[in-house]
TrEMBL record:
SARAH domain location: 158-202
Zinc in keyword set: yes
Protein name, entry field: Ras association domain-containing protein 5
Domain of life: Eukaryota
Entry's localization field: Cytoplasm, Cytoskeleton
Pfam families: Nore1-SARAH (PF16517), RA (PF00788)
Cytoplasm keyword on record: yes
Example GO BP: signal transduction
GO cellular component: microtubule; nucleus
Entry keywords, A to Z: Cytoplasm, Cytoskeleton, Metal-binding, Microtubule, Phosphoprotein, Zinc, Zinc-finger
Length: 202
């Protein structure tokens, strides 16, 4: 009964026909919009045509049709609308978004954030994988200025090293090796200059 009242209150504020619907089993369905703010390129199958309505209905995964891969940047701040259930988790939303864009990168590389505006400030909070985005939408109401969802690179907390490929990990090692050598040279130059000044003073 409480959920029913919340849904009725939510739907009364909707202006774009994207209503929430209560099911007989107590679950409900509705829409969320996710802003894609990805700074790094994503990996997609090479030479694959866009997914058609037929593919979607038949659940054809075009990414499985080729082993060739290419990388490109998704348009910054692209928006994708998803129709989900109250039982859909953050993890499933991330996987669904990657599938729609045919991104074959490991889902662990990405995280879903909720974006809130308070006192003129924009605040981001990373959502746990077990959270239910539609419930958060229901509580916040349909106004995206109050709450919106953002897909970003997973850069907070522990790095999920298993999510990276062998070439990527090897590249990280090369970068770390270069940084280490640069730091060593900086320290050596610092003490060399100090030594020269001491010798001049002597």
């Amino acid at each position: 009964q409480e959920i029913k009242q919340k849904i009725e209150k939510y739907n009364a504020k909707v202006t774009n026909c994207l209503l929430m619907k209560l099911n007989d089993d107590g679950t409900y369905t509705g829409f969320i919009k996710v802003h894609l703010k990805l700074r790094r390129p994503v990996t997609v199958p090479a030479g694959i045509r866009p997914q058609s309505i037929y593919d979607a209905l038949k659940e054809v995964n075009l990414a499985d049709m080729t082993d060739k891969r290419t990388s490109f940047y998704l348009p910054l701040d692209a928006i994708k609308q998803l129709h989900i259930s109250s039982t859909t988790t953050v993890s499933e939303v991330i996987q669904g978004l990657l599938k729609k864009f045919m991104v074959v990168d490991n889902p662990q590389k990405f995280a879903l954030f909720k974006e809130m505006r308070k006192d003129g400030q924009v605040l981001f909070q990373k959502l746990p994988l077990t959270e239910y985005p539609l419930y958060l939408r229901l509580l916040a109401g349909p106004d995206t200025d109050v709450l919106s969802f953002v897909l970003k690179e997973n850069e907070t907390g522990e790095v999920e090293w298993d999510a990276f490929s062998i070439p990527e990990l090897q590249n990280f090692l090369m970068i770390l090796d270069k940084e280490e050598k640069d730091k060593i040279q900086q320290v050596q130059r610092k003490y060399e200059r100090f030594k020269q000044r001491l010798q001049q003073t002597l």
